[in-house]
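Hi R.,

Here's the chain you asked about this morning:
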Amino acid sequence: MNSSTKCQLCGNLNDGSSCTPKTVIGKNEYNRIPYGIEAVLAKVKDETDKQSHCHDCNVHFNGFHHFPCEVEICPRCSGQFISCGCGVV
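And the predicted structure, written out as tokens:
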């Protein structure tokens, strides 16, 4: 994402604000995974806990990623949300 890319879920620009906390995949609603929690879920130590903003969508720590963000984890399958195939409705 770049600073002029609009989020496909909330329509906001890449300005650091948080996106919507829920997404619909198929006919089911899922709670989205906030920025900074990815490393905890993957049980790995990485740099996200040291960064105040996501490097791709610029969301603040503990905020919800903007779509399409390469860092976001799919709440359904735990894959990379932009490429897992679950789809966003």
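DSSP finds one helix and two strands in the chain.

Let me know if you need anything else.
M.
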